[in-house]
Write a structure and sequence with these properties.
Length: 189
């Protein structure tokens, strides 16, 4: 499949959604969960040629392949393995939280969209930065120590609506330098 290794370099590991890791996050008082994942090969070059814009849709499991294609064409993005990864992440998120439908946003930005540390007014939000610097976050108890989600990783954050949200972690989008871009997938409900 598309995220098998090509030659000696692994494009993406053929892993399934880590249900136990996400269940532990959901059941506990942890406010965030980070699932590292390598960056898709050739994604940075694809993002440089694409449009700075966003695509938003609500999506079911059945609609996921079509919505992934619509999102990529709205952004003018072409990259092997991206559509498959978008579908894999959407399906994992829907299944994990037992939802029929979630909100999806795929965006390319060239500046910080939410530059102040905050907590979202959702149940849970997933942010995957495919290209560019990852989301920044802090422990509320150590606001000067800024942490960075690695590019490619899935970051999950509980929002105000989650019953086990403990108000311990805040996040923001990173500042970008001139000419720098980020490609992010955001899923929530
Ligand atoms: Fe946010």
């Amino acid at each position: 499949m598309l995220w098998r290794s090509s030659g000696t370099e692994a494009v993406l590991p053929d892993t399934t959604w880590p249900e136990d890791v996400v269940r532990e996050f959901d059941d506990s008082v942890a406010d965030h969960c980070l699932i590292p994942h390598p960056q898709l090969k050739a994604i940075d070059a694809a993002v440089r040629q694409a449009r700075v814009t966003d695509f938003r849709s609500r999506v079911t499991a059945e609609q996921a392949p079509q919505v992934a294609q619509q999102a990529m064409s709205a952004l003018g993005l072409r990259c092997d393995g991206l559509a498959e990864d978008l579908v894999r992440v959407v399906h994992g998120f829907l299944r994990q939280f037992g939802r029929d439908k979630i909100a999806l946003r795929l965006e390319i930005v060239d500046r910080a969209t939410c530059p102040k540390f905050h907590i979202d007014n959702v149940y849970v939000r997933l942010i995957k930065t495919y290209s560019g610097p990852g989301t920044e976050w802090i422990w509320a108890s150590a606001p000067d120590e800024i942490q960075h989600a690695p590019t490619g990783a899935i970051l999950m954050l509980k929002g105000h609506q989650h019953p086990r949200h403990s108000d311990a972690v805040r996040h923001r989008s990173p500042q970008l330098t001139a000419g720098e871009r980020r490609l992010c997938l955001v899923l929530d409900f």
